[in-house]
Amino acid sequence: MTALKDIQDFLQQKNIAVVGVSRNRFKLANRAYYDLRARGYHVFPVNPHVEMFEGKLCYPNLLAIPEPVDGALIVVPPAVTEKVVQYAAMAEIRRIWLQQGSETDKAIRFCEDHGMTVIHHECIMMFIEPVRFHHYIHRWLWRRLGKYPT
Q1: d(CA 71, CA 8)
Q2: 82-136 pLDDT tens trace
Q3: Considering only the top CATH level, what class is 4-144?
Q4: Best label site of 2, 33, 83, 120, fewest CB within 10 Å?
């Protein structure tokens, strides 16, 4: 289980890459990108198939970002995640959030073996304050069921 202190540390960072933004504006990566940006984060969109995202250059991978990145939120299919965490290691990104549905045991193990803090099996939308209503309900339910990180 992910520790709450790791989640808080990730969210205290200000330069966050969001891997998996899409032309489909209803995708979770896009929602997370918008919410992080609205809360003052400096957010870098990453997708090798998108050149521009919301009027900003969209980077093909984590190594292409020309500024230091404090953390990477990864919202891609599990098969892609394993390659993305390798790029994160090469880019010296030490905080990784594998959004629910993106994680694999191999990617988690890779992050741990390379000294990266890895958050997994958690939805970032439950933690970006202020939390939207439906994610607030989700968080409340997780607490009642004992699934909320401690």
Answers
A1: 12
A2: 999 999 999 999 999 999 999 999 999 999 999 999 999 999 999 998 888 787 7
A3: alpha beta
A4: 83
What is the residue-wise DSSP string for 78-128? HHHHHHHHHHHHHTT--EEEEETTT--HHHHHHHHHTT-EEEEEE-GGGTS
Token pair 């991978």 in the structure block, residue = 61
Query: How far apart are the two ends of the chain, measured CA to CA in Å?
Result: 9
Taking CA atoms, 111 is separated from 11, 105, 119, 146, in Å, by: 18, 10, 10, 26
DSSP symbol at 62: G
130 cis-preceded (ω within 30 degrees of 0): yes
